[in-house]
Batch of 2 targets.
Target 1
Amino acid sequence: MNRQQIEALLDGIPDPEIPVVSIRELGMLRDIRVNGDEVEIVITPTYSGCPAMEQIEADIRAALAAHPVRTRITRQLAPAWSTDWIGPEAREKLRRYGIAPPQGAAATEQVIHFALRSAPKKGAARADLTTPEGQNHSVICPHCGSTHTSESSHFGSTACKSLWRCLDCREPFDYFKPY
Ligand SMILES: [Zn+2]
């Protein structure tokens, strides 16, 4: 098997949490190294300690199981995955699925997100969210395209998303936080 064939097989593996996008489209599939009958798949987790990684590795092994190759999976942690790696086609799929794709965020926003994850103290989180930086960052509604939106909860259906509501069309939606 060559690299292209393996890439085509792996292209069908969806993200366990957001099945409309593949792990390749999310930028998690970093490299495919073919060395004789051994195939090394290099993946970078979207969030460290993400439980979905076990599922993704099992899916990769299953996709290659019917082929005469030995599969080795390497988790590459550096450089760390960033939402900047999400390709344009995946951003469009997220939008159509009703999830606002990550927008270019100010460094301060990212610092707040890091702080929230590493120190989940409720009081501190609330104080951070009322900072002007948080207020200025308007997320585009995936349903109607309005920027007239507000955050209802900093944690949505998963830790990587926050819950927002559109003030124009009134629809709630998940926002894939920049990381
Ligand atoms: Zn809307």
Target 2
Amino acid sequence: MHRMQLLVLGGTGFVGRHLVPRLAAAGHRITVLSRNRDRHRELWIVPGVRVVNGDPYQSASLVPWLKGADAAINLVGILNERGRSGQGFKRAHVDLTACLIRACREAGVRRILQMSALNAGRGQSHYLKTRGEAENLVRDSGLAWTIFRPSVIFGRGDGLFYRFAKLLRLFPVLPLARAHARFQPVFVGDVAAAFAAALENPSAIGQTYELGGPEIMTLAEIVRYTARQLGLRRLILPLPDWIGRLQGLIFDFVPGKPFSSDNFKSLLLDSVVEEDGLARLGIPKTPVGAVMPALLKGLCRQSELDRFRRYRLS
Ligand SMILES: NC(=O)c1ccc[n+]([C@@H]2O[C@H](COP(=O)([O-])OP(=O)(O)OC[C@H]3O[C@@H](n4cnc5c(N)ncnc54)[C@H](OP(=O)(O)O)[C@@H]3O)[C@@H](O)[C@H]2O)c1
């Protein structure tokens, strides 16, 4: 196996925290560029990994870290922007990708792996539209590209089961927009395996891989499954679309945007693969049931311990 030098943008997030140690364990040397390295000390201690501060929107900030690298990996993505104009999505997805492509050319890096999402370029949400625009930039870049389009990703610390676990603990009734939207949850370890396989396999150049797990679940099924694993009896209330849309419009103005009208628009499309990228890469699919029950039970134990500590301290 050829040991590579890699620059990863967005490597401090949920996917990066799984992908970066995996690539490092395979012998690659990795620079993770972060807007604030002090917040991500857990990655500092991984052998073969360095976390550096940098501005991913300035090619001058990227070029020095790209010089001598074999490939760049772009994991940056946002689910919500500050305003509602789409400019935040354009900046994080399109402008940042354009900047990385410019910097790769300048530094002489030929290979780029771009994280995207299922349904990129489809529908009415700024999220999916700008994902599609970023993909087009990568395809037209003249670089040796590979694009990944996962459905929702699950695993330790995800934004799906863990997020619903938090909400289910707080509220006895959970009103759910687009409860019947279909997903194909894919394990973060399988997503990381897909990136690792593509790096080592020249036939992955010029390919787009859709990544989905072995089962299709509706949003309501995902929430009910989470409640069951936590041993909670909760009422899941599917909302008709007109209320779901209204919920998005209201949450647009809630700080931190737990939900938004743009999320609602993305949810209008099922997040299910049309081609089996994991199979093409020779990666077996991990079912939700092989991973999440133990993780969610761990979460329960953790919160019991926290309650016990608070009780002892009070
Ligand atoms: N998680 C999923 O279910 C899922 C599904 C489909 C596609 N994806 C895509 O996969 C990628 C990784 O997902 P993730 O869940 O790991 O994301 P994440 O946890 O939100 O992490 C993304 C990283 O990107 C950087 N970042 C965030 N906002 C940014 C901004 N406005 N400008 C520049 N950098 C920014 C942050 O790094 P620093 O703060 O260190 O700079 C952050 O750690 C994203 O592109 C996401 O859209 C994820």
